[in-house]
C-alpha cells in the first residue's frame, strides 16, 4: 500500500465516495422498496412527486418522492418529549446510523489498483507487495471481520438507547425487543462465519475474497453458513419478518415511537444502509466479493468451456468490471432482502427467539463441527 | 367413542418445518407478480383499469388521468330541465326544497304577469339556487319534483372549486347543463295550460 500523501488523498476520496454513495443509495433503496412493493401487490406505487420547471413536469418514475420526503422531514416540528433523557435521546439516531456506515470501511469493493510493479501483478508475489497499489477498500486491519462484528453489535445500542431514553412504554418495549433480538442473532452470525474462517484460514476480508477467487465461492464451500448468516443478517436489520422491535400493530412504532421526522429518518436510513452493508458482507464472505466468474487479473479464463486461450484485458478494465460486479451482487442481494420483506409476515417475538437460539445456533455449531472434520480429512 | 370424529393433525415434513422450501415458494409468488407487473408497466400493456375486467395486473386507477365511466344512473350535478319554448320547467312548487335534507335549495317564486296563459295555473321560479357544497347528492329533490323539472342526469362529477361562492349554482347555471345525452329537455311530455289535454283548473278555483 502507498504511504504518505498518496495514501491520504486516496483514502479521503474513498471515504467520501463510500459515505455519499451509501447515503444516496439509501434514498434510492427507499424508492426501490416503495415501487417494488407496489409491483408485488399489484399497485402503482408513489409516482406523483412532481418537479415543475416552466411547463415541464418531471416525475422521474417517483424518484422525487425520496427528495420530497427529505424536505418534508426537515420542515416538520422537532419535538423532544419532556421526560426524555436529552443526551441519550439525541445520541441514539446517530448511533444507529453511523456504525453501518463505518462498517463499509473494511469491505473490499474491488481488486487493488496497481500502477507500479506491474510485472508482479500477474505473478505469485502479487498479494505480498507493499507498495505501488491502491486497494479498493478503505481500511485493511488485521482484525478484518472482527471489526465488522464490533461495529455491527454497536448498532444494537442505537435501538436500545432510543427505547430507554424516550420515556415511553412502547419505546421501551421496542428497545428491549430490539436489544434481545439483535444480541441473539449476533451469536448465530458470529458462529456461522467461523466455518468460513476455517476454510479461508484468515479473518481479513480481502484475503477471504482472494481465497474465493483462487478456489471456489463461499456459498459452495459453506452453503449452510450462507443460509444462517443471511437469516441472521436479515434479523440484524430489524426488518420484516424480524421487525418485532417496531411492530406497528403491537407497539406503535417500537423504539422510535417518540422520534420526530428527521431523527426517525436517520433510523430509517440506518436500516436501509444496514441492508446494503449486510448484502456487501454476504457478497464478500460467500459470493466471491468482486470476482466476476472466470475473470482473472489478466482477463477471462474459459478453459473449462474449451476456450484454450484466455481473453486478455487491461488491468484497469478488469478492475472496473470487478467493481461493477461487486455493486451488482450487492444490489441483487439487497433486492432479494426487499423481496423477502414483502413476502413474509412478521414472526411472533417468541418464535424469533426460538428460531435464533434453538434452531440457528445449534445449526451453526454443527456447521463448525462438520467443517472441522472435513478439513481434518482433507488436510490429513 | 362412537360418533366421535377424530381430525388428524396434518403431518409436517422436514421440508415444511425447515421453512426454507415454503419461503422459496412464497418468494416465487411475489416474484411472479413483480415481474409480470413490472413487464406490463414497462411495455405499457397493463390491463385497462377503466373497464371492468378481472385480468391480473396493476389495478391502480391513475385518477384524474384515468377515469372509470360512471353508470347511467349516477347522480351528478343537478340540471333544470327546459320546456319546448326554452323556459325552465319548474313551477316553483317548493317540493324539492322541502324534501331536501340538506336544505340547500333556495327558490324565490314569482307569479306570471297578467295575461300570460300560465297565470293562475302555476308560478315560476324567479330565483333558483342550489348550494352544491351543502348538497349531499341524495336525489330526494329529483324524486320530489312533480313536473320533472329537476334532474341529476348530467353525469358531471362535482369537482373541487377554489372558493365557496363558486359552489352556489343559480338558475342560469343549472339550466346550462345538458343531460348525458346532450338533451336540455326531458322525454316526459308536458301539457301547457291552454293545450287540449290540460285540465284547465286554476289555483283560484281550488281543487
Ligand atoms: S340531492 Fe338531496 S341534498 Fe342535494 S339538493 Fe337534492 S334533495 Fe337536496
Ligand atoms: S319540485 Fe320541481 S317544480 Fe317544484 S320547485 Fe322544485 S324543481 Fe320546481
Question: Can you summarize this structure?
Answer:
The complex is a heterodimer of chains A (380) and B (207). By secondary structure, chain A is mainly alpha-helical.
Draw up the topology in text:
The complex is a heterodimer of chains A (380) and B (207).
Chain A: H1 4-40, E1 51-53, E2 56-58, H2 64-75, H3 86-103, E3 110-114, H4 118-121, E4 133-136, H5 145-165, H6 169-200, H7 205-214, H8 218-221, H9 223-236, H10 248-251, H11 261-286, E5 295-296, E6 299-300, E7 311-312, H12 315-341, H13 349-379
Antiparallel strand pairs in A: 1-2, 3-4, 5-6, 6-7
Helix pairs in contact in A: 1-11, 3-5, 3-11, 5-6, 6-9, 6-13, 9-11, 9-13, 11-12
Chain B: H1 14-18, H2 20-43, E1 79-80, H3 95-99, E2 105-111, E3 123-131, H4 140-144, E4 150-151, E5 168-169, H5 171-175
Antiparallel strand pairs in B: 1-4, 2-3, 3-5
The structure holds iron/sulfur cluster (SF4) (2 copies).
User: Which structural class matches the secondary elements of chain A?
Assistant: mainly alpha
Q: Give the strand order, joined by hyphens, for the main sheet of chain B.
A: 2-3-5
Q: What form of chain A results from the Cα inertia axes?
A: globular
Order of helices and strands of chain A: HEEHHEHEHHHHHHHEEEHH
Protein model, in words:
The complex is a heterodimer of chains A (380) and B (207). Chain A has 13 helices and 7 strands. Chain A has helices at residues 4-40, 64-75, 86-103, 118-121, 145-165, 169-200, 205-214, 218-221, 223-236, 248-251, 261-286, 315-341, 349-379, and strands at residues 51-53, 56-58, 110-114, 133-136, 295-296, 299-300, 311-312. The longest helix of chain A is centred in the N-terminal third of the chain and has 37 residues, at 4-40. Chain A is globular and about 70 Å long. Chain B starts with 13 loop residues before the first helix and ends in a 32-residue tail after the last helix. Chain B has a 3-stranded antiparallel beta sheet. Chain B has a two-stranded antiparallel ribbon with strand order 1-4. Chain B has helices at 14-18, 20-43, 95-99, 140-144, 171-175; strands at residues 79-80, 105-111, 123-131, 150-151, 168-169. Chain B has 5 helices and 5 strands. Chain A binds chain B through residues 36, 38-44, 227, 339-340, 342-344, and chain B through 20, 23, 26-27, 29-31, 33-34, 37-38, 41, 56-60, 62. Residues 99-102, 104-105, 130, 135-141 of chain B line the site of one iron/sulfur cluster (SF4). One iron/sulfur cluster binds next to helix 3 of chain B.
Amino acid at each position: 500500500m502507498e504511504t504518505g500523501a498518496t495514501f491520504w488523498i486516496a483514502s479521503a476520496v474513498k471515504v467520501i465516495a463510500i459515505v455519499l454513495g451509501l447515503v444516496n443509495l439509501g434514498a434510492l433503496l427507499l424508492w426501490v422498496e416503495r415501487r417494488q412493493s407496489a409491483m408485488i401487490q399489484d399497485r402503482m406505487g408513489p409516482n406523483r412527486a412532481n418537479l415543475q420547471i416552466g411547463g415541464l413536469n418531471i416525475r422521474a418514475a417517483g424518484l422525487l418522492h425520496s427528495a420530497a420526503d427529505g424536505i418534508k422531514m426537515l420542515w416538520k416540528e422537532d419535538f423532544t418529549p419532556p421526560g426524555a433523557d436529552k443526551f441519550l435521546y439525541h445520541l441514539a439516531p446517530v448511533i444507529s446510523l453511523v456504525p453501518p456506515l463505518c462498517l463499509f470501511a473494511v469491505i473490499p469493493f474491488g481488486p487493488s489498483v496497481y500502477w507500479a510493479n506491474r510485472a508482479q501483478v500477474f505473478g505469485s508475489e502479487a498479494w505480498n507487495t507493499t507498495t505501488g497499489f491502491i486497494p479498493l477498500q478503505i481500511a485493511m486491519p488485521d482484525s478484518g471481520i472482527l471489526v465488522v462484528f464490533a461495529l455491527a453489535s454497536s448498532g444494537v445500542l442505537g435501538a436500545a438507547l432510543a427505547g430507554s431514553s424516550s420515556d415511553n412504554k412502547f419505546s421501551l418495549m421496542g428497545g428491549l425487543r430490539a436489544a434481545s433480538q439483535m444480541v441473539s442473532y449476533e451469536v448465530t452470525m458470529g458462529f456461522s462465519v467461523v466455518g468460513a474462517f476455517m476454510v479461508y484460514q484468515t479473518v481479513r476480508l480481502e484475503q477471504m475474497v482472494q481465497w474465493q477467487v483462487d478456489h471456489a465461492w463461499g456459498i459452495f464451500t459453506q452453503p449452510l453458513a450462507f443460509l444462517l448468516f443471511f437469516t441472521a443478517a436479515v434479523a440484524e436489520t430489524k426488518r420484516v419478518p424480524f421487525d418485532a422491535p417496531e411492530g406497528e400493530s403491537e407497539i406503535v412504532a417500537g423504539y422510535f415511537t417518540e422520534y420526530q421526522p428527521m431523527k426517525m429518518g436517520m433510523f430509517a436510513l440506518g436500516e436501509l444502509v444496514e441492508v446494503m452493508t449486510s448484502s456487501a458482507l454476504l457478497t464478500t464472505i460467500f459470493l466471491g466479493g468482486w470476482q466476476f466468474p472466470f475473470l482473472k487479473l489478466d482477463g477471462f479464463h474459459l478453459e473449462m468451456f474449451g476456450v484454450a486461450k484466455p481473453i486478455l484485458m487491461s488491468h484497469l478494465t478488469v478492475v472496473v468490471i470487478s467493481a461493477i460486479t461487486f455493486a451488482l451482487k450487492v444490489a441483487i442481494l439487497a433486492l432479494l432482502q426487499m423481496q423477502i420483506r414483502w413476502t413474509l409476515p412478521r414472526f411472533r417475538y417468541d418464535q424469533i427467539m426460538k428460531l435464533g437460539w434453538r434452531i440457528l445456533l445449534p445449526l451453526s455449531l454443527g456447521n463448525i463441527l462438520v467443517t472441522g472434520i472435513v478439513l481434518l480429512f482433507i488436510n490429513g | 367413542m362412537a360418533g366421535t370424529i377424530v381430525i388428524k393433525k396434518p403431518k409436517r415434513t422436514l421440508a415444511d418445518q425447515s421453512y426454507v422450501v415454503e419461503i422459496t415458494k412464497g418468494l416465487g409468488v411475489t416474484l411472479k407478480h413483480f415481474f409480470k407487473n413490472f413487464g406490463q408497466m414497462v411495455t405499457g400493456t397493463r390491463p385497462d383499469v377503466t373497464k371492468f375486467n378481472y385480468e391480473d395486473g396493476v389495478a391502480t386507477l391513475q385518477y384524474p388521468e384515468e377515469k372509470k365511466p360512471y353508470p347511467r344512473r349516477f347522480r351528478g350535478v343537478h340540471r333544470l330541465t327546459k320546456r319546448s319554448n326554452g323556459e325552465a320547467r319548474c313551477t316553483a312548487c317548493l317540493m324539492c326544497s322541502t324534501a331536501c335534507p340538506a336544505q340547500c335549495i333556495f327558490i324565490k317564486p314569482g307569479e306570471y304577469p297578467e295575461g300570460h296563459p300560465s297565470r293562475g295555473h302555476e308560478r315560476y321560479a324567479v330565483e333558483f339556487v342550489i348550494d352544491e357544497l351543502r348538497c349531499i347528492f341524495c336525489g330526494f329533490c329529483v324524486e320530489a319534483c312533480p313536473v320533472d323539472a329537476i334532474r341529476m342526469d348530467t353525469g358531471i362529477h362535482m369537482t373541487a372549486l377554489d372558493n365557496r361562492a363558486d359552489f352556489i349554482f343559480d338558475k342560469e347555471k343549472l339550466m346550462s347543463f345538458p343531460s348525458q345525452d346532450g338533451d336540455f329537455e326531458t322525454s316526459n311530455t308536458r301539457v301547457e295550460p291552454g293545450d287540449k289535454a290540460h285540465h284547465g283548473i286554476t289555483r283560484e278555483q281550488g281543487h
